[in-house]
TrEMBL record:
This is Cystathionine beta-lyase. It holds the Pfam family Cys_Met_Meta_PP. Its EC number is 4.4.1.8. It catalyses: L,L-cystathionine + H2O = L-homocysteine + pyruvate + NH4(+). Belongs to the trans-sulfuration enzymes family. GO terms for biological process: L-cysteine catabolic process to pyruvate; transsulfuration. The modification N6-(pyridoxal phosphate)lysine is found at K207. The gene is metC.
Length: 391
C-alpha cells in the first residue's frame, strides 16, 4: 500500500501502510534494517546523490515504514522518527528558533521540555515565557515581535487542560510564529492538530505507538512549509533512530486502533467509578461532562486516551504512601501507554509558573492498561481505604 492511499480509513492505514512484502521475499513485515554504510556502484552514482538511501543516519526502510504511517494518520507533509519524545520536542523547537527569538510554552507542557527551554535555549539567547493553558485567543496579547514558536500540549499530561488549538494557531500565525503541538495523549486517531492549524505535531512514540513499554521513540510531523527547517536541524544534530527501535514502533502501530479503543473505554469506566468513591474530590478527564474543557474537547477530539488525573482530599504524605506502597496491580513509574496500569502521585508546584496550581489535596495520574477492570477497581478501592485510614 502506497502513501497515495493515505486517505483510507485509520484501521486500514494502520494495517497496511509502510509494508512492501514484494520487496521482502513475501514476508509480511518490513524487517529490521541495521546499517550505517550504504553502497554506491559508480562514481556517477556517488556524484548524483540520488539513491533512495545515502547513509544510514538519515534513515532506512524500517524507519521509513513508521514515518509513512504517522504522516498518513496526521495528514502531514512528512514525518521524521527521532530517538525519543523529548528529542521530538527539542528538534521541533530548534527548527523554529535562533538567538534573540522568543518562545511561548503552555504552563501544562511536559516538564523536560520546559527544562530544555530554561536550561539550554536560554544559553543560546532565546527567551521563554509560559502561558495559561486556557488562554485561547488571549495568546495574541503575549505575542512579541520576536516570538517565533508556541508550544502546546493538549491536554496537559499531568493536569489535563485542553487547549484551543485553532485559536492558538491564529494568534501564533498573526505574529509570525509556528505552533508546535504535543499530541501524545490523544494519538492521531483522536486528534489531528495539523488540521486544526498547527504547523508541527510531536509525539512521544514511546507511549501509545510502541504500546508495550519496551522502546523509546519520538515523531515530528509537519506541514509542507515547516518540513525543511525540521529536517535540517535533525540532520545537523545527528539524531538517528535504529531499525530495531523502529521495528518495535511499527509493530505497536499495527494494533494502535484497537488498543486506543480499549484504553478509552477502560479509562472512562475507571474515571466514572472514581467519581463515586469517597474521598475523591475531582477527576480530571476531558471526556467527562463536568470537566471545564469538555466542550473544547468535544469540538476538537474524536476520542480520549488512557491517561487522566484525580485529586483526593488533603492528607499528609503518609496517607499517599499508604495508598501507593501496597498496590498489587497498579505500579508506580514514569511513562505510560503500555499494557500495564500505572498510578503516580504528582507534585505540580515546580512545573507551574504562569498559573499556579491551586487545587487542594493530592493529585494522582493514572494510566489504565488491560487488566480486568474489577481487579483494578478492587486494587484502587483498597488503596483509597488505606489513604482515608491514614488521614
Ligand atoms: C513521555 C512524554 C514525552 C517524552 O517522551 P520520551 O520518549 O519519554 O522522551 C513528551 N510528551 C509527553 C506528553 C509525554 O508524556
Amino acid at each position: 500500500m502506497t502513501a497515495s492511499r493515505s486517505d483510507a480509513a485509520v484501521e486500514t492505514i494502520l494495517t497496511h501502510l509502510g509494508r512492501a512484502p514484494e520487496e521482502q521475499f513475501g514476508f509480511v513485515n518490513t524487517p529490521v534494517y541495521r546499517g550505517s554504510t550504504v553502497l554506491f556502484k559508480t562514481l556517477a552514482d556517488i556524484e548524483a546523490q540520488s539513491q533512495r538511501f545515502l547513509y544510514g543516519r538519515a534513515g532506512n526502510p524500517t524507519t521509513e515504514s513508521v514515518e509513512a504511517v504517522i504522516t498518513a494518520l496526521e495528514g502531514a507533509h512528512r514525518t521524521r522518527l527521532v530517538p525519543s519524545g523529548l528529542a521530538a520536542i527539542t528538534v521541533a523547537l530548534m527548527s523554529c528558533l535562533k538567538a534573540g527569538d522568543d518562545l511561548l510554552i503552555s504552563d501544562s507542557a511536559y516538564e523536560p521540555g520546559r527544562k530544555f527551554a530554561d536550561g539550554y535555549l536560554t544559553r543560546m539567547g532565546v527567551t521563554t515565557r509560559y502561558f495559561d493553558p486556557r488562554i485561547r485567543s488571549g495568546l495574541s496579547e503575549l505575542m512579541q515581535s520576536n516570538t517565533r514558536a508556541v508550544l502546546a500540549e493538549s491536554p496537559g499530561s499531568l493536569t489535563f487542560e485542553v487547549q484551543d488549538i485553532p485559536a492558538l494557531a491564529a494568534a501564533a500565525h498573526a505574529g509570525g510564529a509556528r505552533l508546535i503541538v504535543d499530541n501524545s495523549w490523544a494519538s492521531p486517531l483522536f486528534c489531528q492538530p495539523l488540521k486544526l492549524g498547527a504547523d508541527i505535531v510531536v509525539h512521544a512514540g514511546t507511549k501509545m505507538f510502541v504500546g508495550h513499554s519496551d522502546a523509546f521513540a519520538g515523531t515530528i510531523s509537519t506541514t509542507g512549509a515547516a518540513w525543511a527547517d525540521v529536517e535540517h536541524v535533525r540532520s545537523l544534530l545527528g539524531f538517528f533512530t535504529s531499525g530495531d527501535d523502529a521495528f518495535l514502533v511499527a509493530r505497536g502501530l499495527r494494533t494502535l486502533a484497537i488498543r486506543m479503543k480499549e484504553h478509552q473505554a477502560r479509562a472512562l469506566d475507571i474515571a466514572r467509578w472514581l467519581q463515586q468513591q469517597p474521598g475523591v474530590v475531582k477527576v480530571l478527564h476531558p471526556a467527562l461532562p463536568d470537566h471545564p474543557d469538555h466542550a473544547l474537547w468535544k469540538r476538537d477530539f474524536t476520542g480520549s486516551g488512557s491517561l487522566f488525573g484525580f485529586i483526593l482530599e488533603p492528607a499528609p504524605r503518609d496517607a499517599v504512601a499508604a495508598l501507593v506502597d501496597h498496590l498489587t496491580l497498579f505500579s508506580m513509574g514514569y511513562s505510560w501507554g503500555g499494557y500495564e496500569s500505572l498510578l503516580l502521585p504528582v507534585k505540580i508546584t515546580r512545573a507551574r509558573t504562569a498559573v499556579p496550581w491551586h487545587e487542594d489535596g493530592n493529585l494522582f495520574r493514572v494510566h489504565i492498561g488491560f487488566e480486568d477492570l474489577e481487579d483494578l477497581k478492587a486494587d484502587l478501592s483498597a488503596g483509597l481505604d488505606r489513604y482515608r485510614a491514614a488521614r
